[in-house]
Specification:
The chain has about 160 residues and is mostly helical. Helix content is about 60%, strand content about 10%. The chain is built from 5 helices and 3 strands; from the N terminus they run H-H-H-H-E-E-E-H. A 3-stranded antiparallel beta sheet has the order 1-2-3. The N and C termini lie far apart (about 90 Å).
Amino acid sequence: MASLASDSPDGLNSILLLFICLIGVIVVFTLIGLLGSGVAKRTGRRKTPAEWLGAIALLSVCATVALYIWGALHVMFMESDTMREACAKAGGEAKAAQVDRYSASYLPLRFTCRIDEGGSYDAAVPGYVNPAMGIAFVLAIATGAVSVVTRDQNRSTSPTVTRGR
């Protein structure tokens, strides 16, 4: 079971990734608090389509950040023993025995087992994380943009009140 694999993935900076995850958690809780305060403030009146779209955009941003944190945690806690286990789980013992190095990518989130013969395969990060993160991000951008356009249209078409002198 001699392995030439390095002890850490190429370019993996756990301190930076931990800092990014901490900021992400703060952002998620802040956005949920902002959303909750907006809902509480507007009780008793019907929500406009722009407000609904804005809320969906905030929730989509929260989902994007939470998915990134979830995937990053899978990469962040990789140590030499768990790297080999992740490679064995993803590709089997035979492939894992041929792994000579590891690499990590932060966008898209990926932990890659590199085989000495030139091939590679992904491990550790759940397969649904990157596609779900992409969908949540696109939904956040789309609903946010439509929310802003809808709100601006409502402002421009609403009657203005002028005071007579």
